[in-house]
Model the fold of this input.
Amino acid sequence: MAIGVGRAIMANRLSYFLHIKGPSITIDTACSGSLVGLDLACRSLQSGEVDAAIVATSNFYLNPDHVMDAGNVGQAHSPTALCHTFDADADGYVKAEAVSCVIVKRLADAIRDCDPIRAIVRGSASNSNGRTGGIASPSGEAQAAAICSAYSNAGITNFNIRKLIYWKIITIYYRQKVGK
Done:
């Protein structure tokens, strides 16, 4: 039996290797893990709990049975193998593998330390869909609420995502009825 190879301890392996102390959290939220991790990192920076955070994510399909089983549940995979996000042609989702890592700091600290600044996170948010048509089905309303919270946390008050989402829904409905 190996110690420290389970999913629950993945973040701790990085902390151990780099000799980092402080919060070390493994997040498993399916598709949203990286954004939830970034949101938690931003909150920890804002509260003063940490001075810097590493948000590292990975997604690998090492067992082909897992990929095949997941695709059979409700025919979730796109038969076209293309992602048509927010589009009337959406017909499922496409699994992918990826690795990413960002180091986040407060802007003043990054400037002081002469760190290369690739982006500035003005606001972040996360939430959950609640009950939808299926446990893996997204909720446009919940996603809009998360986006609105992120904009609010960034101090942006004149943006109304709900109007854009309703406009997109009306456009999709119209195209389906008219056939264009």
In short: Residues 83 and 89 are 9 Å apart (CA to CA). The chain has a mean pLDDT of 82.
